[in-house]
Amino acid sequence: MHIGCPTEIKPQEFRVGLTPNAAREAVANGHKVTMQSGAGIGSGFSDDDYRAAGAAIADSAEEVFATAEMIVKVKEPQAPERRMLREGQILFTYLHLAPDPAQTEDLVNSGATCIAYETVTDRNGGLPLLAPMSEVAGRLAPQVGAWTLQKANGGRGVLLGGVPGVGPANVVVIGGGVVGTQAAKIAAGMGARVTVLDKSLPRMRYLDDVYGREFRTVYSSVGATADAVAQADLVIGAVLVPGAAAPKLVTREQLSTMKPGAAIVDVAIDQGGCFETSKATTHEDPIYEVDGIMHYCVANMPGAVARTSTLALGNATMPFVLAIADKGWKQACLDDAHLAEGLNVHQGLITNLAVGEGLGREAISAQEALRR
Ligand SMILES: NC(=O)C1=CN([C@@H]2O[C@H](COP(=O)(O)OP(=O)(O)OC[C@H]3O[C@@H](n4cnc5c(N)ncnc54)[C@H](O)[C@@H]3O)[C@@H](O)[C@H]2O)C=CC1
Ligand SMILES: CC(=O)C(=O)O
Ligand SMILES: [Mg+2]
């Protein structure tokens, strides 16, 4: 198969869909790889690194999209990229369609087969292509939260770890999955007093067993969330209902109960965010204020540490890229029901029920799409 990888064009996005190692692996398996010139620069990989791996270098994104049978990317295709997709082409990348009707409409109209990293599953109920970026974003969240709390950034001027004689900050993490666990670990490591809210009892049992000395868990309810948020210096939003829009767990009204200058880092923003007042921001202009509360809502946080993120994402995507390239998307999905869960759009139809529900649009299941 001919695999193409363009340069990411989302603002301040420095990751790349294929590492030189992934390109080498694909070439070794008999596939052709075309990289857009400069695609790897932001992650520290030169065109020569890709040439050495056996890839061809194209001058433009147009050339990559026009020639490749499968496009491998990182971020959801931006409008100019969507216009270059064609019928029958495979797109393999993050999509986050539930909160994004405009992108969905373009992908449906393109006729392309679009497989979303974030809804591919594994046999343990996990999300193997989201997990590495969730690990990165989770570990970044206390770091950017600490920065947002600084006075010059509009925050309340509280140091997460406190100092001898002055207590630490209260950090509340809503959602104790991959993002939430990594965020809680790092915040606790920075010396903060950390509470994790989740509504999965098995998950809280696990967290308590493994991290019981580092942070505490509280069952997530409207009342418990309200109490925790009112006490917090920093709230990290880390919930996920796979494929669906994030539930809004903190209302605008509740901001008035918070400490002035407290900070919110809504990592769940790529699924629409779990605070009513969240709207996506970029690395160029990451924070804004609502009712005295500072919001950080960058939808591609891992792009800030592009090299680490590209390497971590590449480790996770490589087996799936190879399976699709070796067998074609259909056989690869027939052989692996977990990959099939990634099928979000095919031949003008939404093919993931949670995504369809999130958008309020008609959808069929991936299994139904595979039967047709
Ligand atoms: N902004 C960014 O750059 C990035 C954003 N993300 C996003 O972060 C979010 C979290 O991802 P993961 O941690 O990988 O998901 P996960 O599935 O590992 O964890 C989500 C957790 O939320 C919990 N949850 C669901 N509803 C809840 C509720 N009402 N109250 C409390 N907890 C609830 C679940 O029980 C689960 O433990 C996703 O939306 C993901 O797309 C991930 C990576 C980067
Ligand atoms: C998961 C995701 O949206 C990101 O890494 O940007
Ligand atoms: Mg994102």
TrEMBL record:
<keyword id="KW-0547">Nucleotide-binding</keyword>
<dbReference type="InterPro" id="IPR008141">
    <property type="entry name" value="Ala_DH"/>
</dbReference>
<feature type="binding site">
    <location>
        <position position="134"/>
    </location>
    <ligand>
        <name>NAD(+)</name>
    </ligand>
</feature>
<dbReference type="InterPro" id="IPR007698">
    <property type="entry name" value="AlaDH/PNT_NAD(H)-bd"/>
</dbReference>
<keyword id="KW-0560">Oxidoreductase</keyword>
<feature type="binding site">
    <location>
        <position position="203"/>
    </location>
    <ligand>
        <name>NAD(+)</name>
    </ligand>
</feature>
<dbReference type="Pfam" id="PF01262">
    <property type="entry name" value="AlaDh_PNT_C"/>
</dbReference>
<dbReference type="InterPro" id="IPR008143">
    <property type="entry name" value="Ala_DH/PNT_CS2"/>
</dbReference>
<protein>
    <recommendedName>
        <fullName>Alanine dehydrogenase</fullName>
        <ecNumber>1.4.1.1</ecNumber>
    </recommendedName>
</protein>
<dbReference type="GO" id="GO:0000166">
    <property type="term" value="F:nucleotide binding"/>
</dbReference>
<dbReference type="GO" id="GO:0000286">
    <property type="term" value="F:alanine dehydrogenase activity"/>
</dbReference>
<feature type="binding site">
    <location>
        <position position="75"/>
    </location>
    <ligand>
        <name>substrate</name>
    </ligand>
</feature>
<feature type="binding site">
    <location>
        <position position="220"/>
    </location>
    <ligand>
        <name>NAD(+)</name>
    </ligand>
</feature>
<dbReference type="InterPro" id="IPR007886">
    <property type="entry name" value="AlaDH/PNT_N"/>
</dbReference>
<feature type="domain" description="Alanine dehydrogenase/pyridine nucleotide transhydrogenase NAD(H)-binding">
    <location>
        <begin position="149"/>
        <end position="297"/>
    </location>
</feature>
<feature type="binding site">
    <location>
        <position position="198"/>
    </location>
    <ligand>
        <name>NAD(+)</name>
    </ligand>
</feature>
<feature type="binding site">
    <location>
        <position position="15"/>
    </location>
    <ligand>
        <name>substrate</name>
    </ligand>
</feature>
<dbReference type="GO" id="GO:0042853">
    <property type="term" value="P:L-alanine catabolic process"/>
</dbReference>
<feature type="domain" description="Alanine dehydrogenase/pyridine nucleotide transhydrogenase N-terminal">
    <location>
        <begin position="4"/>
        <end position="137"/>
    </location>
</feature>
<feature type="active site" description="Proton donor/acceptor">
    <location>
        <position position="96"/>
    </location>
</feature>
<feature type="binding site">
    <location>
        <begin position="298"/>
        <end position="301"/>
    </location>
    <ligand>
        <name>NAD(+)</name>
    </ligand>
</feature>
<comment type="similarity">
    <text>Belongs to the AlaDH/PNT family.</text>
</comment>
<dbReference type="GO" id="GO:0005886">
    <property type="term" value="C:plasma membrane"/>
</dbReference>
<feature type="active site" description="Proton donor/acceptor">
    <location>
        <position position="270"/>
    </location>
</feature>
<feature type="binding site">
    <location>
        <begin position="267"/>
        <end position="270"/>
    </location>
    <ligand>
        <name>NAD(+)</name>
    </ligand>
</feature>
<feature type="binding site">
    <location>
        <begin position="239"/>
        <end position="240"/>
    </location>
    <ligand>
        <name>NAD(+)</name>
    </ligand>
</feature>
<dbReference type="InterPro" id="IPR036291">
    <property type="entry name" value="NAD(P)-bd_dom_sf"/>
</dbReference>
<keyword id="KW-0520">NAD</keyword>
<dbReference type="Pfam" id="PF05222">
    <property type="entry name" value="AlaDh_PNT_N"/>
</dbReference>
